[in-house]
UniProtKB/TrEMBL annotation:
Every Glycosyltransferase subfamily 4-like N-terminal domain range: 14-178
Source organism, top-level taxon: Bacteria
GO molecular function: glycosyltransferase activity
Keyword Protease attributed: no
Coiled-coil ranges from the UniProt annotation: none
Protein name: Glycosyltransferase involved in cell wall bisynthesis
Keywords assigned: Transferase
Amino acid sequence: MRYTLVTETYPPEVNGVALTVQSLAQGLQARSHEVHLVRPRQPGDSAAPANTLLVPGAALPRYPGLRFGLPATRRLLRHWQQQRPHAIYVATEGPLGWSALRAARRLGIPVASGFHTRFDDYMRSYGAPWLQGTALRWMRHFHNSAQATLVPTDELQGFLQHHGFRHVVLLPRAVDTHLFDPARRDPALRATWGVDESALVVLYVGRIAAEKNLPLAVQAFRAIQHQCPQARFVWIGDGPQRGALQRNNPDFIFCGTQCGEALARHFASGDLFLFPSTTDTFGNVVLESLSSGVPVVAFDQGAARQWVQSGVQGATVARDDEAGFIIAAVRLATDTPLRNRMRAACRATVASLHPAQVATAFDHLLHTLATGSTADAIPSLS
């Protein structure tokens, strides 16, 4: 089969959407499919990689290093008339994503969309809560233009179905347990953070931006620090709020964006992971933390709802219970024997997850659409 994946973001850009799309592409290729990619041209692109159509893009405001694709309906029409895919996956709701939906509809090519971002929640994070309803209607119109919308949790599936999204299909996520492994813990790396094995290292991994609810992470760490004065807060990632955080918190350690084995080494070298976001639809970093043997404190949603049991792999608290989040973080931070027991449980809970399983399910969905069936026949790909 020939499949095309359309995305506004792709590695070397580092974010959950980019890495998820890359993993899906690699999984289809491993299953001997012809996989094509459509994405915006990035600054480092001198020529298009094999089976990749590069389209014009523009810098995403307030996000250095990220871009979005400009409208390209006519170009996609010409390209797909020459190399017609059997099915298309559209990962993002930007101008390029809309163009892909229009072109596919005109050509009669089936499309699956991916629901990766709660833009309605972003409105609240960026001070415009009155636009949440508008954002949700916009996303519903986009995704209902596809034959299937893929989501990572049954929680999100139920939410979207309740709000009028059609053909919502569950496609679970996985984690590379060979890469994210407690054995990658690195005392030498911890030494560069100014700690030995007896000290506590608290981690934040992800985009450093307003929608991630970062003030709560800062508050939680300051409460931890009151009980554990030698604790260090290590931040892995980048984003528009990094500069202000560094200026206001000179004792925090900022490692910038890390990828691959370097990211796995940073994860495994931590002791507690704080994930304060309420806007992530899943949170791949939660699985990466668990696979690395690092307990998680998070709100009860997304990956944490599925894979973190309070008192076993970390702690989850009700959404928006910020006081509860801080209490849970302090409790785990001050109980070393409990965290040590959790390390093995964290690893065990994700040991059966494999990216190849996700690729198989994704392939099944695209093949179903390509052969003329509807997504209603496969409400879950778990």
